[in-house]
Amino acid sequence: MSIAKRGRLFHLRRRVPRRYRRIEPRETVWISLHTDSETIARSKADRAWSQMIEAWEARLAGNSEDAEARYEAARDLARARGFRYLDAGAVAKLPVEEVVERVEAIPAPAKQPDAIEAAALLGTVPEPRITVTKALELYWGLAKEKTLGKSEDQLRRWEAPRKKAIKNFVAVVGNKEIANITRDDMLDFRQHWLDRIEAGEVTANSANKDLIHLGDVLKTVTTMKRLGLSLPLGELSFKEGEKQTRPPFSEDWIRTRLLAPGTLDGLNGQARALLLGMINTGYRPSEGAALTAETIRLDCDVPHISIEPEGRQLKSHYARRVIPLTGVSLEAFKQYPQGFPRYRNRATLSAVVNKFLRANGLLETPRHSMYSLRHAFEDRMLAAGIDDRIRRDLFGHRLDRERYGKGASLEHVAELVARIAF
């Protein structure tokens, strides 16, 4: 940093970086530090240079053809110059001295006011009109808190239905500005789904999910961008049919078919271990796949696994729990104490296992799947009379009453589970 006195005050002198040459005609800039103390000047120099960089970056963005980028650049540039961006109508209503202050802050090299700076300080950059597809682009940043802690695979699965909902809406209604979406547009979109439901192509549940995700995107952008719009999104959902749940595997099927010697040999080792691990733990497939050397704890009095938000987001805070390892599940984890890198943070485990079970006649009915092992574990605990709180704690489910005390010890839970373990 080159600091020198010009007149009574210290200034920062620096060459203009090459990146900004096309929007800054000067080769060297002098920036007043507004002090006659060299010590204070040096403490302020870094901040002054950062503000200069911010202003240049905003001016670069102001040359963009993207209306959203130009508008954001104008707001950033006004802020860098010490003003709040106001549209021209609001600027005109300011006291005269404040308007004059804005005008005097506009750089005028060769006595010609800079057009980008003038637009930012006098509010002549029009606020962009946000289309449906633009709303989706904005949504990812505005809904950032919803993705905190999600793994790459979780993020992909979270984004996919929202992208699909916007794509479907645009295909039916068009890429309209969200301010111009009418009730008729929404009813047309609903009719599109009704036609597909009646044709047997989709269920009411699927249609409702699309409507929910579309509404989430539009309402989030409207709220966070403070657009003040009243979106016509109410009373559009369909009456849903009875939710289909996976049936549990029977104890006899698990014992005589899934655990028959050699039955699972054709399945790759990590997938086989995760399937066997699920039999006596009831974890969700994604929870098992995410386990690591730190969360697989075999060298202790009660071997167990710990379901934690390690590199991923849990389904709810109830999902954080410890589960004892017993029987075939314990033996399976002894083979993979470091975890399952082949399936960690990937959505392929269930598909691989279900394909193998289906191809080898190991599904008790066509509606069964790997997830049926979770239901089977619940049924076995219920039949054994295991307390509801313990069952919910093992499954990571919410308890329908206040949770008092610490709950059952790991040793006690391990004893109970050992009685029903294969």
Automatic annotation (TrEMBL):
InterPro entries: CB, DNA_brk_join_enz, DUF6538, Integrase-like_cat_sf, Integrase_catalytic. It comes from Rhodovulum iodosum. Pfam families: DUF6538. It comes from the Bacteria. The keyword Cytoplasm does not apply. This is Integrase. Keywords: DNA integration, DNA recombination, DNA-binding. Residues 244-418 form the Tyr recombinase domain. Residues 130-222 form the Core-binding (CB) domain.
